[in-house]
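Go through the following before class.
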Amino acid sequence: MVEEYHEGGCVCGQLRFRALGSPRRVSLCSCQWCRKRSGSPIGLSVYFKKKQIAFLQGHLQTHTLYSDAGRWIKSQFCPDCGSTLTWTLEFLPEYRGFGGGAFDAPEFIYPERYVYSRNKPEWLQVASDIILCPAMAEQPKNTGNNPGASGGHT
């Protein structure tokens, strides 16, 4: 049986990655960091366990910063074109987040929640099955198959 995989990379093509299996968590977020990271009012974050990720070519540069909730974020980007591709969050250190737009074929992505939805642009309509979290939700209690089911993005 062939395992599902999703590939992607940066704008210039220097860096390529592959994620095996299904994402463990998919979130929309309008915190300050996601807005700045994506250059958009909404960031789309796709999380996989680190062991599901393989970097196929290139190298990343790392920058550590702090989220709206005061937790560290280790953001990694292409040093050639500057594309932010991936990050690790302090409260989910065994997971790696990727920007949804970094995937070559992002059709598999569907968000479960929208964190910092209080910052949602008025023009944006959110599907009724997406959980709205006005701010940072509680710290995740279980990081099993559904990490942060009760927790926020950053």
Q: What stands out?
A: DSSP finds one helix and eleven strands in the chain. The radius of gyration is 15 Å. The longest helix spans residues 32-38. The CA atoms of residues 13 and 58 lie 9 Å apart.
